[in-house]
Amino acid sequence: MKIDLITIADKIRTNQIPATELRNISSFAKQKDMMLQSIPLKDGTAAKILANDREIDCLIMRDGKVLTARGMIGTVEDIADKINEIYKHISKRNRAIKTVNTETESLDAIYKYFNKVDK
């Protein structure tokens, strides 16, 4: 059985994207033409959201290493909703460090996302 690996997260989980390529996540996002948002979390990890006009991936990282990765393909509206869901999930579980205002940062991330895909 062949499974299509379509998201960045799928490719990370199956080692098709080497860990060394992800150490500098900002240049990786730029290379893939994806928006990057980072949310520092209380446990010393960070949620990295990568998104473009057809895909969103959320990576939980520590010290340049991916601990977990999930992604989905969707419309621009689906992806904007998913960005908001990620921020709400982090807020609800009180996982972000104290200096992160998840409400305003969620709006900023969605605004940044729409600016990215409108180009």
Structural overview:
By secondary structure, the chain is an alpha+beta fold. The protein has one domain (8-118). Helices cover 43% and strands 24% of the residues. The chain has 5 helices and 4 strands. It has helices spanning 8-13, 19-22, 25-31, 76-92, 102-118; strands at 35-40, 46-51, 55-62, 65-73. Strands 1-2-3-4 form a 4-stranded antiparallel beta sheet, with helices on both faces. Helix 4 runs antiparallel to helix 5 (102-118). The longest helix is centred in the last third of the chain and has 17 residues, at 76-92. The radius of gyration is 14 Å and the shape is globular.
Largest sheet: 4 strands, antiparallel
Q: SSE order in H/E notation? A: HHHEEEEHH
Annotation, overall tally of beta strands: 4
The figure for the number of domains is 1
Task: Give the amount of beta strand, in percent.
Answer: 15-25%
Radius of gyration computed on alpha carbons: 14 Å
